[in-house]
Amino acid sequence: MTTVALLPDPSTPLARESARQAFADLLDARTSEDAVADFLIALADRGETSIEIAEAARALRERMVPIDAPAGAIDVCGTGGDGHHTLNVSTAVSLVVAAAGVPVAKHGNRAASSKAGAADTLEALGLDMERAGALAEATLRDLGICFLFAANHHPVMRRITPIRRRIGRRTIFNLMGPLANPARVTRQLIGIARPDYAPLYGKALEQLGTEAAFVVSGEEGLDELSGAGPSIVVSIGSAALPRHVTPDDAALPRHPLAAIRGGDPVYNARRLRTLLDGEHDAYRDAVLLNAAAALVLAGTDTHLADAASRAATAIDTGAAARLLDAWIAYA
């Protein structure tokens, strides 16, 4: 007879061991779906602690399908769910940063709340998702970029996904994706849609042994550095940025958020291709700002303005466009 585990009472913060066991039971299907839903809702209502976020991520890491990555590889990823439906900034940033010489293990998924997630847009650009997944380790090694489709690397989430869909609101699982990169990167630029959660999220990263990370959030609730105004930055480990960053810090102009509003995958793919072909607009500046932060994180530059110039060169020389073409041809 299979014993059904009882999840702890989430009305008060869970101790580390209780949180670790709870997420092990949850991911290993030792709890009923109704109990999982109730537990996740109660956690969200109370507000997750850094310990709970870290232990949830640790449990997911222990069950993921990993790949090997070259030294210095980073990830650029957002938690999603910000409701602004912008163009795919982190996807474009990944291409630009990789073209500038920093290996990028891009972790992502299809759209959950937006019209086009990273996987949707890359597919519309011509990347074969199945082959890109199968060859991820090889393209990361040979080209300096890969796409780690979450569904391929986190099989335990197949049971959780329908529960999350039924809940229909943010839960701790919205925070876990960037913390469980299958390439086991130790340097990450992570966008989070809730500025008030940035310090808490930073503490979770520290508990997970992150070498260096920037947790960023536009003050309008954007899960990336905002091209419209101030963003909050929490620096972890060996890299550092000011606590508040604006486009001015990277010598870039400001644009209203509406200027980078996205659409369906075909529209977003067209805009990304136009960006790589040299179009100067609000999308380019948003990508340059976030790419600059990623390059500072990787250690290629110290100042955002210098890093933004390096990112612009990766676009203007055609290096980023050629990388995308090589990736599509490889996969």
Describe this structure in words.
The chain has 331 residues and is an alpha/beta fold. The chain has 2 domains: 16-62, no CATH class; 74-152 and 160-330, 3-Layer(aba) Sandwich (Pyrimidine Nucleoside Phosphorylase, Chain A, domain 2). The protein is built from 15 helices and 7 strands. The strands form 2 sheets. Strands 1-4-5-6-7 form a 5-stranded mixed β-sheet, with helices on both faces. Helix 11 links the parallel strand 4 and strand 5 (212-218). Helix 13 crosses helix 14. It is globular and about 60 Å long. The termini are far apart. The model has no long low-confidence stretch (mean pLDDT 93).
CATH topology of the largest domain: Pyrimidine Nucleoside Phosphorylase, Chain A, domain 2
Individual helix count: 15
CATH superfamily of the largest domain: Nucleoside phosphorylase/phosphoribosyltransferase catalytic domain
Number of strands: 7
Q: Describe the sheet with the most strands.
A: 5 strands, mixed
Order of helical and strand elements: HHHEHEHHHEHHHEHEEEHHHH
Annotation keywords:
single chain; Pyrimidine Nucleoside Phosphorylase, Chain A, domain 2; two-stranded parallel sheet
Helix and strand layout, with pairings?
Blueprint: H1 16-27, H2 33-46, H3 50-62, E1 74-78, H4 89-99, E2 104-108, H5 118-125, H6 129-134, H7 136-142, E3 145-149, H8 150-153, H9 157-167, H10 173-176, E4 187-191, H11 198-207, E5 212-218, E6 231-237, E7 244-245, H12 265-276, H13 282-298, H14 304-316, H15 319-330
Parallel strand pairs: 1-4, 2-3, 4-5
Antiparallel strand pairs: 5-6, 6-7
Domain Glycosyl transferase family: 73-320
GO molecular function, one term: anthranilate phosphoribosyltransferase activity
Binding site for Mg(2+) 1: 90, 224
